[in-house]
Fold this protein.
Amino acid sequence: DRPRFTDKLPDNWTRIDAIRRMLPGAAVIDCRRDPLETCWSCYKQLFAPGRADYTYDFAELATYFNDYVRFTDHSAKRYPEHVRTQQYELLVADARTQITALLAFCGLPFDAACIDFHRAGRAIRTPSAAQVRRPLSAATARSTQYGELLDELRAFLS
């Protein structure tokens, strides 16, 4: 019953062309985080059976991530008015400026509730539900704690 919704499944990038055809006015935002941090985060997450099976193997995960980057970059060039890549690190470094730009891209005015999203009382049903209840933070990088254990993943991402 609302004119806007958000869907943040990790494989939505594979549907950009379908989204553009079905919802020609849709704004697609690719929120891109450091490749190693993204892949490590996905690797640690236990997804539902049959969902994101590629996340359980470093080689498959890196291949998937590299394909995502190539296709999303291509889509952003093909549909610049409808596909925007947002660097996560810039978002956490300057939330107000970046959120203002994201909302403008979506044709929406700035709303302070977007910065205070963690105070929203609605139900959250995503693997990142705990994060949504905390303020935006740049302290989400965890891969450095694992040092050489992630060297194989690093190599696949290079």
Notes: The mean pLDDT is 89. The helical segments are 16-22, 35-44, 58-78, 88-93, 95-105, 129-132, 151-157.
